[in-house]
Amino acid sequence: MTSTAAPGRTAEETTAAPKRTRMISWWAGMGAFFLAFAAYLIIAWIAAGEPARVPPGPTPMPTWMKVCLEVQQWGLFAGMLALIWFKAVRPKLRDGSVPFDGLMVLSFALMWWSDPFYNYFTPGFNYNAYFINLGSWVGHAPGWMSPNPTQIAQPLIWLPGVYTCAFFLMVIIVNWIFRTLRRRYPTMSVATMWLVAFVPMGIVGTFWEAAFMMMGSHSYASTIQALALNPNTYYEFPIYQGITASLLYTTWGAMRFFRDDRGRSFAEKGLDQINASAPVKGLLRFLAVSGAITGIFFAFYHLPNALIALRGDAWPQDAQQRSYFATKLCGPLSNVACPDPRVPFPRGPESVYLGPDGNLVVPPGVTAPKAPPVMTTETP
Question: Is the Cα dihedral 100, 300, 171, 113 positive or negative?
């Protein structure tokens, strides 16, 4: 029987090629979608004339906190630029292509646009408005429910820096754990290695983020306090936040560690079967890696945490009384009360809501619904 396989490839590899090609095409399509969605949100935000600094408000901020935030903001941003240079730009100039680490760093550096999706349904957290910010664009996401999204003080310098530096460092630590396990237990399965790394990464992730919060970077104010460290403080830290973050770190770490002999991740499978120029293949690799990393982020972090925030306890007074955390998102300086199990969730601009003074507010032009009378006769 005459083989129909391409020279140098088995018949099985030829049959599998379309599937592998679909793999990179699928992930690249997801990456393109996320970046296009980010562009849409930002353009809509600018077109609406909404970019404006969210001020920290009248609450005095301790000098030590300002110093910590400045060090975080500019130190992390400098670290991001260094990582982009050493992991992406310099290898591109030297070798003509960006290695996987460079693609991962670039993906982290661009992914921060979505961070406030934690607040999709209700105000679950806010950043310290002391950071350089122009509000946020996330309110233009279809179906957005949380009130006053422009008052989310999304940091323009700190946030991309912390995403790039902290996330890449977490991936490096995961890979160190994987290498140690592979060396000591060479027959250990991939799933077991992932599970072994998951627990320490939850601890490490909790430690660094809780430390940043104590320094005043952000506040998870709508937390289930029975499942929180330091409850009833502006720096209360939800334990489940550490769990979902560990899902990210461990999965991204596995994506980096378990690559083929050409250094390609699962998202890049099928690249060789695509007939395209080197620049186009490079773009496809970036979109595929970015799509996989961002998809993991939405599935393991944004979705569960946005849903858990709906079950959060009342914002602690320690957070509400600090204007640099509450801003005009909710609370004393806002038109709406902060989340509380006793407070109804506004579901858009036409929702009846509770004001910060505890009074029910019916928006202008909105008629409060009334229940119809009970039917006492049989319908035709």
Answer: positive
Tokens representing residue 225 in the block = 């306090």
pLDDT in tens, 259-317: 998 889 999 999 888 888 989 999 999 999 999 999 999 999 999 999 999 999 999 99
| 3-class DSSP state of 287 | helix
- Of 194, 220, 222, 195, nearest to 206 by C-alpha is 220
Strands 126-127 and 360-361: unpaired
Least confident interval from 5-14, 86-95, 108-117, 160-169: 5-14
User: What's the predicted TM-score (pTM) here?
Assistant: 0.90
Domain map (residue ranges) of the chain: 18-330
Pairwise CA distance, residues 79 & 100, whole Å: 18
What is d(CA 339, CA 316) in angstroms, rounded to the nearest whole number? 10
Cα 39 from Cα 57, distance rounded (Å): 30
Per residue, the 3-state secondary structure of 295-350, as one string, reads HHHHHHHHHHHHHHHCCCCCCCHHHHCCHHHHCCCCCCCCCCCCCCCCCCCCCCCC
> What does DSSP assign to residue 133?
B
| 190 touches 198 (CB < 8 A) | no
Token reading at 79:
């670290």
- Residue position matching structure tokens 């699928």: 26
Q: Are 126 and 218 in contact (CB under 8 A)?
A: yes
What are the residues whose beta carbons fall under 8 Å from the beta carbon of 47, sequence distance 6 or more?
none
- Gap between the Cα atoms of 179 and 342, Å rounded: 49
CA 267, CA 273: separation in Å to the nearest integer?
Answer: 14
**Rg (Cα) of the chain, in Å, rounded?**
24
pLDDT at residue number 8: 44
Task: Calculate ∠ Cα 59-310-353, nearest 5°.
Answer: 65
